[in-house]
């Protein structure tokens, strides 16, 4: 492979045969079994399945953030030449900030109610990238503006409880994107929001992915949510991937009975 081919090679995270167990009082739980998928930069990969199917555990393992009773029992997570699962924890954590950004279902749990948006954004940006307060402030303003806030300076004076759920989620996305991650893991980011706001947030995630060439892993229990924005869809059930395909194929030609059930639940 010549250097130009190497340069043109799509950048991606490759998850291969990932298995995760938890030790519990009742014994071992096999939460994730032999799961394989890819997250390409500039593309949206959706992981879809009902509650408890192993979506969040899978994504937390990519970031090295499994609960202490959890253990990866097999598989690899490749980023370029590195297997993230084999890296020393310190090196892995240092890589995380620049490699992955994460947004969750409830932005209120990620934002501190005591501090203004300005304090949280400026400190968050400075924690992950070496820059002055002024530079961090300017980055925050720009990214809030990109997320649809017309007067970011005014917004930054507010504290989270003064904002709606949808506004807090846009603030969280702005904060993550200001850190310029290569991949964004969005775990049920629209589940707590009403339908109109859901659509707004989906549009923003779609734009970030395609304009900034960010690879998105979108986790949801609702196949309907990702139908319009996902490039590739993986269906998870009881810790396994039971179906996969591009969004159109999944809807048009579902292979697995569970996928058919998920589609029926959207239509009915
Ligand atoms: N710390 C833990 N100890 C024991 N079991 C756990 C732990 N964390 C997760 N699990 C189990 O792993 C399985 C997968 O959980 P996970 O949270 O990934 O599901 P999910 O598909 O993301 O569902 P939800 O959307 O409800 O979070 C579940 O059976 C869950 O109970």
UniProtKB/TrEMBL annotation:
Parts forming coiled coils: none
Gene Ontology MF: a single term: ATP binding
Membrane topology designation: Peripheral membrane protein
Listed GO CC annotations: plasma membrane
Pfam families: ABC_tran
PANTHER family in alphabetical order: ATPASE AAA-TYPE CORE DOMAIN-CONTAINING PROTEIN (PTHR43297:SF14), OLIGOPEPTIDE TRANSPORT ATP-BINDING PROTEIN APPD (PTHR43297)
Protein name in UniProt: Peptide/nickel transport system ATP-binding protein/oligopeptide transport system ATP-binding protein
Main location (coarse class): membrane
Alphabetic keyword roster: ATP-binding, Cell inner membrane, Cell membrane, Membrane, Nucleotide-binding, Translocase, Transport
SUPFAM superfamilies: P-loop containing nucleoside triphosphate hydrolases
PROSITE patterns: ABC_TRANSPORTER_1 (PS00211), ABC_TRANSPORTER_2 (PS50893)
Protein family according to the UniProt entry: Belongs to the ABC transporter superfamily.
Matches recorded under InterPro entries: AAA+_ATPase, ABC_Ni/Peptide_Import, ABC_transporter-like_ATP-bd, ABC_transporter-like_CS, P-loop_NTPase
Location of the protein in the cell: Cell membrane
Domain ABC transporter: 15-263
């Amino acid at each position: 492979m010549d250097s130009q081919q190497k340069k043109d090679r799509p950048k991606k995270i490759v998850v291969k045969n990932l298995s995760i167990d938890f030790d519990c009082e009742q014994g071992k739980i096999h939460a994730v079994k032999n799961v394989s998928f890819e997250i390409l930069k500039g593309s949206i990969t959706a992981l879809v399945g009902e509650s408890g199917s192993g979506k969040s555990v899978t994504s937390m393992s990519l970031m090295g953030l499994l609960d202490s009773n959890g253990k990866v029992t097999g598989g690899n997570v490749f980023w370029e030449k590195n297997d993230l699962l084999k890296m020393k924890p310190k090196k892995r954590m240092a890589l995380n900030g620049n490699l992955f950004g994460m947004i969750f279902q409830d932005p209120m749990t990620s934002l501190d109610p005591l501090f203004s948006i300005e304090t949280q954004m400026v400190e968050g940006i400075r924690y992950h990238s070496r820059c002055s307060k002024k530079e961090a402030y300017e980055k925050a303003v720009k990214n809030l503006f990109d997320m649809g806030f017309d007067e970011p300076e005014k917004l930054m004076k507010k504290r989270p409880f003064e904002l709606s759920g949808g506004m807090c989620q846009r603030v969280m996305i702005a904060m993550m994107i200001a850190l310029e991650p290569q991949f964004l893991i969005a775990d049920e980011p629209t589940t707590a929001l009403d339908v109109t706001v859901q659509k707004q947030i989906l549009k923003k995630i779609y734009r970030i992915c395609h304009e900034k060439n960010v690879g998105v892993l979108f986790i949801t229990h609702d196949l309907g949510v990702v139908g319009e924005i996902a490039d590739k869809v993986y269906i998870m059930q009881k810790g396994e991937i039971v179906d996969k395909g591009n969004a159109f194929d999944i809807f048009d030609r579902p292979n697995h009975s569970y996928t058919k059930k998920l589609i029926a639940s959207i239509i009915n």
